[in-house]
């Protein structure tokens, strides 16, 4: 359900940018979604369709780029993609890690006409 609010924000950004650029139609919106955000692209699409009705961005295709969780080991600085449950460094076994990626959520590109 928390996709509702995020879709609203995304649509607002798209509309603002489209208006600023003086475009008449938004064709495609590319959205980067990190695995740690917990946002399901399907849900965003569902809400988007309903919310974008009668807007400049109605009917735009959403393309999602899903980004995996990436961790950096604090002991050896190795950057790795963890397994489902184990967040330990594959090089040195340390579980002291920083999150490097997976929290992203942003609009990467828009195609307009
Ligand atoms: Zn390490």
Low-confidence sequence ranges: none
Broad structural category: alpha+beta
Q: Report the major sheet.
A: 3 strands, mixed
What's the Cα radius of gyration? 18 Å
Percentage of β-strand residues: 25-35%
SSE string, helix = H, strand = E? HEHEEEEE
Q: How would the global form be characterised?
A: elongated
Topology record:
Elements: H1 3-21, E1 26-34, H2 41-51, E2 61-67, E3 70-73, E4 79-80, E5 97-101, E6 105-112
Parallel strand pairs: 1-2
Antiparallel strand pairs: 1-6, 3-4, 3-5
Helix pairs in contact: 1-2
Bound molecules: zinc ion.
The site of zinc ion has 8 residues, from loops.
What's the quick description here?
The chain is built from two helices and six strands; from the N terminus they run H-E-H-E-E-E-E-E. It is an alpha+beta fold.
Structure characterization notes:
Helix 2 (41-51) links the parallel strand 1 (26-34) and strand 2. Helix 1 crosses helix 2. It is elongated, with a radius of gyration of 18 Å. The longest helix has 19 residues, at 3-21. The protein has two helices and six strands, in the order αβαβββββ. Helix content is 27%, strand content 31%. It has a domain at 3-68 and 101-112: hypothetical protein PF0899 fold, CATH 3.30.2320.50. With 113 residues, the protein is α+β, with helices and mostly antiparallel strands. The chain binds zinc ion. Residues 73, 75-76, 78, 89, 91-92, 94 line the site of zinc ion.
């Amino acid at each position: 359900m928390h996709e509702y609010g995020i879709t609203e924000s995304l649509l607002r950004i798209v509309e603002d940018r489209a208006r600023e650029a003086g475009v008449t139609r938004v064709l495609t919106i590319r959205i980067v979604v990190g695995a740690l955000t917990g946002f399901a692209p399907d849900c965003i699409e569902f809400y988007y369709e309903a919310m974008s009705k009668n807007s400049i961005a109605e009917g735009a295709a959403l393309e999602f780029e899903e980004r995996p969780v990436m961790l950096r080991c604090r002991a050896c600085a190795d950057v790795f993609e963890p397994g489902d449950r184990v967040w330990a460094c594959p090089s040195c076994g340390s579980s002291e890690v920083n999150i490097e990626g997976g929290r992203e959520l942003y609009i990467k590109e828009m195609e307009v006409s």
